[in-house]
Amino acid sequence: MALTPGTRLGVYQVTAQIGVGGMGEVYRARDTRLKRDVALKILPESFASDPERLARFQREAEVLASLNHPHIAAIYGLEDADGVNALVMELVEGEDLAHRITRGPLPLDDALPIAKEIAEALEAAHEEGIVHRDLKPANIKVRPDGTVKVLDFGLAKLVEPGGERHADSSQSPTITSPAMMTRVGTILGTAAYMAPEQARGRPADNRSDVWAFGAVLYEMLTGRRAFDGEDLPDTIANVLKSTPDWNALPADVPPHLRVLIQRCLAKDRRARIADMSVALFVMTEPSLVAERPSTVAPSHLPAGRSSWRRLVMPSAAALVVGATVGTGVWLAMRPSTPRVTRFSAVSTTGAAALALDQVSIDLAITRDGQQIVYKGTGTNGEQFFVRALDQLEPTPLAGLGTPKAPFLSPDGQWIGFVDIGSSVGLKKVAITGGAVLPICPIDGQSRGATWSDDGSIIFATSLAATGLQRVSSAGGEPTVLTTPNGQRGESDHLFPQFLPGSQAVLFTITATTGGIDRSQVAVLDLRTGAQKTLLRGGSQAQFVASGHLVYAAAGTLRAVAFDLDRLEVIGTPVPVLPQVATLPTGVAEFDIARDGTLAYVSGGVGVTPARTLMWVDRQGHEEAIVGAPARAYAASRLSPDGTRVALEIRDQENDIWVWDFARETLTRVTHDPGIDRAPAWMPDGRDVVFSSQLGGVVGSLFSRAADGSGEATRLTQSANIQLPSAVSADGTRLIFWEGTAATGDDVMMLTLDKDRRVDRLVHSPFFETNGEISPDGRWLAYQSNESGQPQISVRPFPNVDAGLRQVSTGGGIQPLWARNGRELFYLAPSGALMGVRVGPGTIWRADAPTTVLDRRYLLAGPSLDTASFLVRTYDVSLDGKRFLMIKEAGATGPAVATASIVVVQNWTEELKRLVPTQ
User: Fold this and answer.
1) Could you give the CA distance from residue 496 to residue 98 in angstroms, rounded to a whole number?
2) Which end of the chain is more exposed for a tag (fewer CB within 10 A), N or C?
3) CA 888 and chain centroid, separation
4) pLDDT at position 874
5) Distances in Å between the alpha carbon of 544 and those of 518, 534, 598, 638?
6) Angstrom distance (rounded) from CA 655 to CA 664
7) In this structure, what are the phi and psi dihedrals at residue 246, rounded to the nearest 5 degrees?
8) CB 222 within 8 A of CB 105
9) What angle do CA 830, 813, 350 make, to 5 degrees?
10) How far is 594 from 501, CA to CA, in rounded Å?
11) Is the pTM of this model over 0.70?
């Protein structure tokens, strides 16, 4: 729809129309709140009338909003007002490159700075897993101060031909048919910049942007398109079959830049430059960029030359090394030492996305640096994927149970891992897939493992009493190698890594106080049993063949020279990677191959999207909690008087917070560096009970004042993970879940008196969790998979063996009692909220389940077949008329940056430069 000047969309007042195209109309507008001019892009009707497409567009916009780069036009947000959907963007003044080229070719000294800034923008986006797919001169603006801005990042990939919906529309090419171009009014020029794979309707990737970059650079230098035609079919045919006129490039374009453009425009994308860092290197490498000699004839230099640094053709001796000029130039401009290259291999969005569970190391790289194994999200929930670095797509490995913490055999043929599913233990599987072979049972969650050349495995678990353990990779009983010395302040021994020769192993000693920052890197001589501390204030060390130890400290990677013969560090550690994803448990997500290839997860731990708190009544009407900010909410618990809500927020801190409805304030309850989860209120509303890793424990139960004052009180002493779910109305008993490798997952009860006795309420070989006591104290509702899928069952309380009733009929999780005890709620497999009417008295009487809300809100995991639904995510008001829900998609608020697996090849060259070993 067309907007006239003066029209208001929320806080934005339209002042003029500045563009129109297939993606909608673009208007200049004034942000009346922040007093700045912005660009409003009004989305086409095909978006606004399709909720699924609009929701996908919003998700993409949230990802794009995380890009913060000086050469990418910023996305400020989405505005929905009076039925009009608009994208709010940075207003970029200046001329677009298409208009500039109409006046003729750009001088080389003008074109190169522009090309460099375009390449920097593309490189930054590719590192975040974002492909532009519609790069062209019209989408590039040069501001009056000379700054380049790339526009419409990622938006074109949302356009589908003819409005058709594909299973993965994010992979759709920009244009796949003449009909589409006719329908959406896209200019013919777009087709001229499509890579051949896009023209054939195949998925686009980073190399498709590389092609478009080459086409844009060619057009800047020549003043004409690399591929053109009289009509659309003719243009696409030229993209697929013809070759640009290389003689059209000006005479002062040096050979290395000619080769760069030719390699960008290679029709076979396997032969094309694969990464924008290569283009940046060619355009900026000092050995290739120098002052142009005075012997160049003035007639070859275009008029109007700017003061940019000039380029010259390197000497023939430096460029021509081979039979052909093109090959010789390309080979000669390679550096004499291996060049460090970086690229993003896997992101946390899209298919086969990386999944961080905030507990274990979730990636590993083979010793030859050719394959990455990581835990990701597939069609069956979390599973392993194998990504060969010479392939575009990863290979999923199915049938592994619930796999965590991959590590690899020295020959790269086997993946060791921990299965925390129905058959808990250390296992292995061929990297190509196949039968899963058991190795041994384990006594806790994984805290690192390493595989030696002689076929033994050393591993660590969350049970501090055992320290490091060793077992044969062929299977057997593990033996304990080390035991933490509590008298010396040692809490646990973690993250083992074999040194070359497999006669010694690096490991981490955690401290009983001070968290992961007090950890030490030590070495264990396997021949003598002697231990020696190498470093303080670090963890998770690995040896690199360049003669370095690399370890994690305070969210960074640091390196120090290391004498392998004497097992001693040399000199002072130096930061070598400013930010690697580090979990609250201290786990840093990185691995290093024997050949020096580094794989790490970029960014922080805050990969959970911002969500909103929402009241929803029984008719489905939503009402946002006034004043509550968008945060990474994961669980909510209303206080006994309904005036506050305790929240689990999964961000970088992973703490418990309390929101006060009347005061509209968010108060932090916990402050420790570990993960705090699953808040539950004491009946008087003064204290909150929660699970915590405070003091380095795995996840015991603690209580603390709801206003965050005073010290936390530890309630249990177990070495297993525990999560509270409910406190009895009289405040004498606490219901919680405990998971162990030995006894399974059970509903437990803690007596809240001086003895603090722990009893198992529901114990079986099955998975039981989320126990909830009825308000009258007569019934225990809980979740169990005894029937083969999660269902809601009820037993008498506290005499739970006196009867058993299954309440849900088609699956269910997260039971919750109404405050009057006359209704029991739970979530169905579809995400719908179900309700069961319950009769009064000592005999169980209940109606059939009915649907209360059919709209899906936040769940705690990807499917009901997983064991991840350990914490209830919703609550009910005191009067039972509305529900406190956490809304996922469409939450407003600050975008949370995605993480990705970044691969750095030849990283040892960088280590040698930053940390000399001699």
Assistant:
1) 57
2) C
3) 16
4) 94
5) 24, 15, 10, 51
6) 19
7) -70, -20
8) yes
9) 50
10) 13
11) no
The residues, any chain, with a CB within 8 Å of residue 335's CB and separated by 6 or more, are: 285, 287
Residue 682, pLDDT > 70, answer: yes
Percent helix, strand and coil across the chain, each to the nearest 5: 20, 35, 45
Are 265 and 244 a contacting pair, CB within 8 Å? yes
CA distance 478 to 414: 19
Tokens 């250390």 sit on residue? 426
Residue 892's pLDDT is what? 36
Find the mean pLDDT for residues 314-318: 34
Per-residue model confidence (pLDDT) at position 175: 31
Domain ranges of the chain: 1-91, 96-292+307-336, 349-606+898-914, 612-887
Reported as a single tens digit per residue, the pLDDT across 522-565 is: 999 999 999 999 999 889 999 999 999 999 987 788 999 999 99
pLDDT at 672 over 60: yes
Specify whether domain 349-606+898-914 bears CATH 2.120.10.30.
yes
Whether 134 is catalytic = yes
DSSP code of residue 838: B
Q: Which CATH number applies to 96-292+307-336?
A: 1.10.510.10
The reply to whether domains 1-91 and 96-292+307-336 share a CATH topology is: no
Alpha-carbon distance values, 169 to 136, 155, 166, 625 (Å): 21, 12, 5, 33
Of the candidates 521, 561, 542, 538, the residue with the CA atom closest to the CA atom of residue 915: 561
Closest alpha carbon to 225 in 196, 248, 198: 248
| Angle at CA of residue 349, ends 347 and 351, nearest 5° | 95
Structure tokens at 49: 């009338």
Residue 139's contacts (CB-CB under 8 Å, 6 or more residues apart) are 96, 132, 150, 151, 152
The backbone region for 607, taken as left when phi is positive above 0, alpha when psi lies in -120 to 50, beta otherwise, is alpha
The strand order across the sheet containing 622-624 reads 622-624, 612-617, 882-887, 875-876
Whether 625 has a pLDDT exceeding 50, the answer reads yes
What is the spatial distance between Cα 406 and Cα 394, in angstroms, rounded to a whole number? Answer: 15
For residue range 741-774, what is the model confidence (pLDDT) as tens digits?
Answer: 445 578 999 999 988 999 999 988 777 889 999 9
Between CA 813 and CA 827 the distance in angstroms is: 5
Neighbours of 774 (CB within 10 A): 20
pLDDT at residue 279 is higher than 50: yes
What does the alpha-carbon distance between residue 736 and residue 406 come to, in Å, rounded to a whole number?
30
Give the model confidence (pLDDT) of 70-120 as tens digits: 898 888 888 877 778 788 888 888 888 988 998 899 999 899 999 999 999
Kindly report the CATH number that applies to the domain delimited by 1-91: 3.30.200.20
As a whole number, the mean pLDDT across the chain is: 81
pLDDT digits (tens, 9 = 90+) for 419-451: 876 567 899 999 998 889 999 988 777 889 999
Rounded Cα–Cα distance for residues 762 and 769 (Å): 9
Annotated catalytic residue within 134, 252, 655, 745? 134
Q: Which three-class secondary structure state does DSSP give residue 295?
A: coil
**Dist. CA 723–CA 860, nearest whole Å:** 14
3-state secondary structure (DSSP) of residue 582: strand
Say if domain 612-887 classifies as CATH 3.50.50.60: no
Q: How far are the Cα atoms of 21, 136, 182, 264, 280 from residue 188, in angstroms, in the given order?
A: 12, 11, 10, 22, 29
**Token pair for 645:** 């809500």
Give the up-direction half-sphere exposure of residue 126: CA atoms within 13 A in the CB hemisphere.
23
